[in-house]
Write a structure and sequence with these properties.
It is a single chain. With 77 residues, the protein is α/β, with parallel strands linked by helices. It is built from two helices and four strands; from the N terminus they run E-H-E-E-H-E. It has helices at residues 26-34, 58-69; strands at 11-16, 38-42, 46-51, 73-75. A four-stranded mixed beta sheet has the order 1-3-2-4. It is globular and about 25 Å long.
């Protein structure tokens, strides 16, 4: 799927970088977004896509899911 690993989730969620799970990855989330990919972490059986915004909009969610779908993902931690 990508150069850093594979993810086989049952559930895919999108979260802002202000979310509790994302705070420790702030720089990595921003770097992934700037390089055209979405940051992802495994979170107890689900994949959490982290995006560098304060408020999730339908467009941001759709874009993050599309990046994940095409394999442009940076797996963190």
């Amino acid at each position: 799927m990508n150069e850093t690993g594979t993810l086989a989730p049952a559930v895919i969620d999108v979260a802002t970088w202000d979310d509790l799970e994302a705070r420790s990855y702030h720089d990595e989330v921003w770097s992934a977004w700037l390089h055209g990919s979405v940051a992802a972490v495994n979170d107890t059986g689900r994949v959490l896509l982290l995006v560098p915004v304060a408020i999730l909009t339908p467009a941001v969610i759709a874009f993050a899911l599309r990046l994940y779908e095409v394999g442009s993902v940076t797996v963190l931690g």
